[in-house]
Amino acid sequence: MAGERHRLDVWLWHARCVRTRSAAAELVRAGHVRLNGTRVGAPAQAVRLGDVLTVALAGRVRLLKVIGFSERRGDAQAARATYLDISTPSQAGDDAERSAG
């Protein structure tokens, strides 16, 4: 299990960061995803347990720690079981202020 890995675009899609796998691939190709602090350009990049992804999407930056994989795209509850959101609370507060104002 320690050596298990999945494609980055598939993991982003299964984690429900984006609606389609092709949107996940485009997000990666556009340079909006970092893997352990390094910008990734290949959607087929391997993701392993414990990796930290920085995803810039829809005006937000999210830090997601990979804690699991799924064989298929499930509901939102199943998706949340694949990651731990380690974004700082100040980032979430800034987003709330922008949407309120």
From TrEMBL:
GO molecular function terms attached to this record: RNA binding
Domain RNA-binding S4 per the UniProt entry, residue ranges: 6-72
Lineage: Bacteria, Pseudomonadati, Pseudomonadota, Alphaproteobacteria, Hyphomicrobiales
Entries under Gene3D superfamilies matching the protein: RNA-binding S4 domain
Residue spans crossing the bilayer: none
Protein name as annotated: RNA-binding S4 domain-containing protein
Keyword terms, alphabetized: RNA-binding
Pfam assignment, any one: S4
